[in-house]
Amino acid sequence: MKATFLSIFIGIVLMLSACSNSSTNSKEAANEAQEKSLTFLFNFPTSTLDPHQDDNSTTVRAGITETLVKLNEDLELEPWLASEWKAIDELTWSFTVQEGVLFQDGTTLDAEAVKQSFERGINVSESMKAALKLESISTDGNSVIFKTTQPLPAFPSELTHPHTSIVKVEDDEKLRTAPIGTGPFVVDTFDSEVKVELTKNTSYWNGEPKLDKVTFGFNSDANARAMALQSGEADIIYYLPSELATSLKSDKNIVVESVSSLRTHFISYNMNSSEVADENVRQALDSLFDREAVANDLMGGMAVPAGGPFNPDFPFSMKADPVKYDSSHAKKLLEAAGYKEVNGVMEKNGEPLQLEMITYQSRPELPLIAQMLQSNAKEIGVEINIKSVENIDEYLSTNEEWDIATYSNLTAPRGDVGYFLNSAYSLDGALNIGEINDPEINEILTELNKTTDVEKRNDVGKQVENMTQQKIYQSYIVHPMITVAMNKDVKNYSVSKQEYYLITNQLDVE
Description:
twelve-stranded mixed sheet
């Protein structure tokens, strides 16, 4: 009897235990099923998450880090990690840090932490150092005091750049792989040039994120991104060429959105090249771009021919007519540079005109623009060899043996005329990849950087634009649209002109 009773008792215990385990497992499964996740595919890979050194602005785009100031949809400055700011004098700015903001490890964001982040950024980033021109950084209570070496009326707008992201200063390896910011998502794992796995920051100061997990992936192949969306491997894919956008629009489960961008596709010339250092040669090449064909044929009408660096919608755009394609004019300019046609080849001192053009695949229309120039140049006896590289910035910064390069950049990401003109034409500018050094332009830029009145700044900026267009330091080709495709279940995502704030605490899925 005792044995029988014991057997029954053990059986009941085991049954209850099984029921308990089953209930626990069911709850865990239900919780997992309720987790909201999203995969976002971006077109540029990155090898680092260090915001002070990542030229692809990944940490701001992925919701990991934030800046003191941000831009709204009307390209107006608004507070972010700074609650307010003011100019104390023409060289000194005070920014008050938001109260109640925590880093993702739970420590408090204060003025000293912001100071340390800026000091570290300037120490490792030449472009950040050149843009901010800081003499000193100090704190006063919960305010950070920036003193510049020269008047910078647009200083607050410079602090929208992701290079100025606020991070908790740690060793370089930690900042490269898992920086601690204040954003809505925390780095879980980082697979260099492949993806960042993110989990939500439950203590996020601006409201708990709606998503639990985000995969921010990288794939420079537009076709692969489109296939990932169609197969359900991705929920949002960024930057689509026109032909893929047209194709995806026919899928009832996919939403395609486009918006006019702040970006310009252009050609940079290497001023250290003996061939293109000649202004006549640059003007000749500029005449060989068929901008209308690029906008309407290569890009399916999803671009506007460019007459300068800025979209004509901006008040500081000089709104010049785009240069027309004219091969006969190009030939005359080459002859003015000392070249003559010999058996269908343009030669000078017995040497044919041969140029090396660098391009990259992450923006698929850029290699097509390079091929168009190559074809048009061949018709007048100029040979252009095209080289495609993986990382355009790295290649151009470490190689001098190139003549022309396709490039694309946000030319007015702060809604101000000064950013691009300083970056592209100042000798120490981050975008001055052709090493332009023009004393006249430098003098006007100095005047621009001292001018506080917006209308006067715009007028001075137009002077620089006109001068650069006359000398053709760059050939501005088109202003592209930003096109994004997403699963119809994605909520609270809209395509933004700024291209910065992609993953937010409001982003959601059904």
